[in-house]
Amino acid sequence: MLYYLFEYLDQLDVPGAGVGQYITFRTSMAVIVSLLISLVFGKSLILALQRRQVAETIRDLGLAGEDSKKGTPTMGGLIILGAILIPTLLFARLNNVYIILMLVATVWLGLIGFTDDYIKVFKKDKKGLAGKFKIFGQVGLGIIIGSGLYFNENVVSRQQIPYEQVMKQGMDTTTLQSTFLNGQKVFYKTEKSTKTNIPFLKNSEFDYASLLKFIGPNYQQYAWIVFILMTIFIITAVSNGANITDGIDGLAAGTSAIIGLTLGVLAYISGSVIFANYLNIMYIPNLGELLVFAGAFVGACIGFLWYNSFPAQVFMGDTGSLSLGGIIAVFAIMIRKELLLPILCGIFLVENLSVIIQVFYFKYTKKKYGEGRRVFLMSPIHHHYQKRGFHEAKIVTRFWIIGILLAVLTIITLKIR
Q1: Around Cβ 88, how many Cβ atoms within 10 Å?
Q2: Ranges of each domain in the chain
Q3: Between the chain's N and C termini, which has fewer beta carbons within 10 Å?
Q4: Which pTM does this prediction carry?
Q5: CA distances to 197, 324, 357 from 354, in Å
C-alpha cells in the first residue's frame, strides 16, 4: 500500500518519494518492518498465548530437556504469518500476479496449520487435523497456484534466441522481439510455457509438456495437467518436510531463513534480463517483485528466532511449519527453480527420508523376523542425534551450517553445467 503512496507523492514531485520505486529499498524496508513486528508484537502474543494456556503437548520420547519444554506456548506461527503479510501488503505492488498468489498461499496454509493447532490445543485431540484433510488442503492450494501460473496471461517467460541460430535457420526477425545487451542485438520471444530450469546440464531447461509427447502431436494443449500435478506434488512434499523438521528449537525457522534468502537471490537473478542473459537462464518478466516478499519472509523467520532459539519461549506449531514449507515450494515454482529444491531444501529432504526409511525398515523387519528393527535411534533424524547425546543447540547450529553449504551449492549450480 505504501508503494502506491510513494508513487502518488512522486507524481506530485515530493522530494525523496521516488525511492519507493526501487525494489532494493522496498525489500530492505520489508526486512526491517518484518523484524520489528516479530520482536515488538511477538512478546505480546506469547504472553497472550500463555494466559490462554495454549501450550504444546509434549510427548514422552525420553529425550534430554523434555520436561523443560512442557507448558511452552505453541501457535507462534501467527508471529511469522503477521510478519510476512503486513510488510508485503505495505511495500509490494499488489497488482502483481506473483505477489497475489504468494499472499494466497501464505493465508491458505496458515489456516490449515492454525486449524490443526486449534484442534490439538483447544479440542485436546493430540492427532490434530486428520491427515487426509491436510492433504486435501495442500492439493487445493496446488490446483490454485498451478492454474494461476499457467492460465494467467501475465505469467510468461522470455526465451533468448542466439544470433547464430537466427541466421542459421533463416528466422524472420520481424516476428521476433529484440533488445541490446552490452552493445549487441539480442533476439528473444515472450511465451507461455511449462519450462523450468534444470541444474547441472548445459541445456538448462526442461519442459514438463515433453512428458506427454507419447499422446501425439497435440500434446502441448494438455501441458497444464502435468504442470498442476507437479505443483501439487512439490507443495505437498516441501510443506510436510518443513513440518517434520520443526522438532527442536530454532531448526525449522533458521533453515527456512537460509532457504528464503537463497530464493530471493534466485528471484532477483531470474527477474533481471541482464543477469538471466549472463547466466543463460530463463528470464521471467515482473518476477523481481517477489524480492519484497522474500525480504519479509526472511525477516519473519529471523525475528521469530528471537523467541524460538534454545531454550524456546514459543513453538511455531503447524501454523508456522506448514506455511513455511508451502511458501518455499510455491516461491520456487514461480521462479522456475523447483528442481533445485532437493539441494536447497536438503535438510527437509533428509528429515523426510529418515522417517520414511525408519517406518519402512521397521515394518519390513517385523514381517521378516517377527520383530521390528530400526535404522536410527529415533526419527526424524534430529532426534537420532539427541538420542546420541548431542545438545539441541549443537544439532541446530550444525544443521544451519549444512543449510548454508547447500544454499551456496544451489547458487553455484547456475554456473556448473
Answers
A1: 26
A2: 24-156+192-337
A3: N
A4: 0.91
A5: 28, 20, 5
Look up residue 2 and give its three cell numbers. Answer: 505504501
408 closest CA partner among 344, 342, 346: 344
pLDDT digits (tens, 9 = 90+) for 66-101: 666 777 888 899 999 999 999 999 999 999 999 999
Q: How many residues comprise the chain?
A: 417
Q: pLDDT tens digits, residue range 232-250?
A: 999 999 999 999 998 899 9
Give, as one character, the DSSP assignment of residue 375.
S
What residues contact residue 368 under an 8 Å CB cut-off, 6+ apart? none
